[in-house]
Automatic annotation (TrEMBL):
<feature type="transmembrane region" description="Helical">
    <location>
        <begin position="6"/>
        <end position="25"/>
    </location>
</feature>
<keyword id="KW-0443">Lipid metabolism</keyword>
<dbReference type="GO" id="GO:0009029">
    <property type="term" value="F:lipid-A 4'-kinase activity"/>
</dbReference>
<keyword id="KW-0472">Membrane</keyword>
<keyword id="KW-0418">Kinase</keyword>
<comment type="similarity">
    <text>Belongs to the LpxK family.</text>
</comment>
<keyword id="KW-0444">Lipid biosynthesis</keyword>
<feature type="binding site">
    <location>
        <begin position="47"/>
        <end position="54"/>
    </location>
    <ligand>
        <name>ATP</name>
    </ligand>
</feature>
<comment type="pathway">
    <text>Glycolipid biosynthesis; lipid IV(A) biosynthesis; lipid IV(A) from (3R)-3-hydroxytetradecanoyl-[acyl-carrier-protein] and UDP-N-acetyl-alpha-D-glucosamine: step 6/6.</text>
</comment>
<dbReference type="Pfam" id="PF02606">
    <property type="entry name" value="LpxK"/>
</dbReference>
<keyword id="KW-1133">Transmembrane helix</keyword>
<keyword id="KW-0547">Nucleotide-binding</keyword>
<dbReference type="InterPro" id="IPR027417">
    <property type="entry name" value="P-loop_NTPase"/>
</dbReference>
<comment type="function">
    <text>Transfers the gamma-phosphate of ATP to the 4'-position of a tetraacyldisaccharide 1-phosphate intermediate (termed DS-1-P) to form tetraacyldisaccharide 1,4'-bis-phosphate (lipid IVA).</text>
</comment>
<keyword id="KW-0067">ATP-binding</keyword>
<dbReference type="InterPro" id="IPR003758">
    <property type="entry name" value="LpxK"/>
</dbReference>
<keyword id="KW-0441">Lipid A biosynthesis</keyword>
Amino acid sequence: MERFSFLLYPFAVLYGWITGIRNFLFDINFFKSKLSPIPSIIVGNLSVGGTGKTPMVEYLISQYFGEMKLATLSRGYGRKTKGFLKARPNSTPEEIGDEPFQIYQKYGDSVSVFVGEDRVKALAEINSTSEKFNLVILDDAFQHRHVKAHMNILLTTYQKPFYSDFLLPMGRLREYRSCAKRADAVVFTKCPKALGITERENQKQMVSKYLLSETPVLFSSISYGKPYPLVTGMKFKPDLILISGIANPQTLIDHLDQNYNLLKSIRFGDHHDYTESDVKEITEVFESFKEEPVLIITQKDADKVKLLLQSGFLKEIPIFVQPMEVQFSSEDESILRKLIAQKIG
């Protein structure tokens, strides 16, 4: 397909004109941006999905958990509801979206999780509550320019940096590469842990062409923890079948392939809602292996798979969850924390 992507060039040009005019109108204040009433950080990207925004949001939560009164805000992609909502103990992924549900399941009421398509109105709603938040983290709002955050963190993957990508539909960029200049920091995600100094400098030189001179460029990797059972009592085995419904599972596939015996990877689309036909496919694949492997799933998929278990599906199959978290070098982590302190106080 990529070989013929040049055929989509005229549509990419048209798309670029549309997004370019929109951004120009914001730049000259014809369209207004409103400063968030609460200290805020936007975590976003230029491309469509798969850069690791939610793990980065969770990283920021972990950095300031206990120090600040925290909240997160996203539109709740894929939810079946509309308007402004706050996550509650009885909330479901269908109600608030996959990523907000994942964050709420992890932190509970210790972190307030909100969803709302209109970020300006949602921030006003959050600010009007009796809770006094020190920081709100906005997931995937880099293109939502009606809101002006106190800090913008732009993510790009090491495997497919935005400077080598193209506008939709020819590539995966949602706006021009030059729009990266709105970022206060750029973070390369999913980097190899053994990334050398020379490669770091090469990447900085390539990406800095699109940034303001003072914008720091940082590097993060993914750290994978020990898989844990979705239901207690299940015994782990190194023979695995991966089930994933995320935008880009390749980094996870590589990790499992290097550290375990990955027999097969069954990939569904991002934000996939599992059905009975999916269960049938998964069961058939599982039963095709005589060594009786275990299923391993992502944290994002875990809560949806739990709903399948509650409905009576997959109960006899051992299912394990692969935890993961974002890691920075101590130097880059220090740079990021100092920058956040400057921006939000």
